[in-house]
Amino acid sequence: MLGSARAYARHFARDVAGPSIRRRRPRRVDLPHDAFGLAIGPSGHLHMGSQDLVDLVDEFGSPLHVVHGTRLDAYAHAAIASRDDPDRHGCDVFCSYKTNPVPDLLVRLHHAGLGAEVISAYELWLALHLGVPPHRIIYNGPAKSIDSLQVAIDQGIHLINANSVSEADTIIRIAGEVGRTVRLGLRVSLPGMWGGQFGIASESPMIDDLVHRAMRDPRADLVALHVHRGTTIRSRTDLELHVRQVLDFVRRLRDRTGWFPGIIDVGGSLACATVGEIPTVEYRLNRFLGADLLPPDPAVAIGLAEASEVAATLVAGHAEEIGEPVPQVVLEPGRALTSNTQVLLTSVVDVKHDTGLRHAVLDAGINIADAAAHEYHQLFSATHPLGAAETPFRLAGPICTPADVLYNNWRLPELRPGHVLAIMDAGAYFVPFSTEFSFPRPAIVVVDDDGARVVRRRERFEDLVRFDVATGLQAHDRA
Questions:
Q1: Sequence spans of domains, the chain
Q2: Which of 257, 314, 396, 433 is 20 to 30 Å from 210 by CA-CA measure?
């Protein structure tokens, strides 16, 4: 009886309420191809510059990450435009390594003039091995190893932001052991921002004591305050509220301790204009009743150039108002810098139509594209980009778990095995969050005016067991 009631409820929701709700809901209007630096080529396929994306899959395999090199360069130059203009206020920009830690891409960002913002011993090692000058490195993160702190202090990096009172004490102690003065910053968590393991709570009475002790300690040069919002900064209003909240705390801290930072690091969290969080109600209506997911409005998002100028101008005005020297202002962008410069191409392996909703099985899933399962990422058919997007599909990955679904209900042109789909905005957290879950990870290709080149080769089966010392594998190799 209970089973029959549940079956009827599912039938009513899907077949009766669903069509009515879908008619009342707005339909998705896809963002234009040129919002991602793409166009329709002479073949009728989706192109990046002169490169046919379907041809790239034929040449380099599927799935495949494709980076728009000149677009990445343009974003980098925009980020520092106001900094380098003597007639404007601008932030110094340190790119977030954790967002897309691909060495070739990081080198391009550094050549454009951006510093390195690192959060682990590995990322610090990588920045130094890529030739980033120590004075262009900022070390953040809640779990800095002793060895990495010794390296950072000995190298004289630009700034180490202490994540807690105890870590600040450790950093100062190590500076004494290394025999150098450390450039120290304090990460503070303000109300409504990431707290917990991140930063020292702004209401903690321990902050004033720490500031006083650090100011007196010859091993420390207390120069910076670091406040990372955590939640997304999408609009100019969001950014202004964040910076004003930081400046309000700076004023109160100065009044209590007499200390005014020479560097105000307002962190990252800047949004990618074409990526958005999917509201819970919208997600459920899409998954269970087939209503469309709706794209974010790119016009609302603040760009890097504007964000740099707005933040620096607010800080400069505040300093002048209270009679303090204008501090250096730092931004640490991640997704706003790299997300919209990268596309993930994936091929259709199978199409199933034995239930009401067509299922397309892709060779990319949550193993390499987990962000697409919970954020709005525009999806195009690279094979038939001009086809009418009228057929709903559930787009599932290759992993043997029902959780491996990237798009629960997305309208596309008709699909067949071998068709190539393009997931937009894959340049933030797709690569670092990818795993070797049953499948090797894809290659990364950069497209420039002179063609396409591989900057990270596709993993091989042998790569998946490269650290193992299994006797069976060794015996098989000998045979």
A1: 25-66+340-464, 70-337
A2: 314
β-sheet bridge partners, residue 330:
92, 265
The reply to whether CATH 3.40.50.2300 applies to domain 25-66+340-464 is no
CATH 3.20.20.10, domain 70-337, yes or no: yes
Of the pLDDT bands very low, low, confident and very high (cuts 50, 70, 90), residue 84 is confident
> CA–CA separation, 129 vs 151, rounded Å?
13
Same fold, 25-66+340-464 and 70-337: no
Contacts of 233 (CB under 8 A, 6+ apart): 239, 242, 269, 270, 271, 302, 307
Q: In the predicted model, is pLDDT for residue 111 greater than 60?
A: yes
Q: Report how far residue 423's alpha carbon sits from residue 399's, in angstroms, rounded to the nearest whole number.
A: 18
The residue to which tokens 């450390």 are assigned: 182
Alpha-carbon span 84 to 264, nearest angstrom: 18
SS3 label, residue 211:
helix
What pTM was estimated for this model as a whole?
Answer: 0.93
445-464 pLDDT, tens digit per residue, is: 999 999 999 999 999 999 99
What pLDDT sits at residue 476?
58
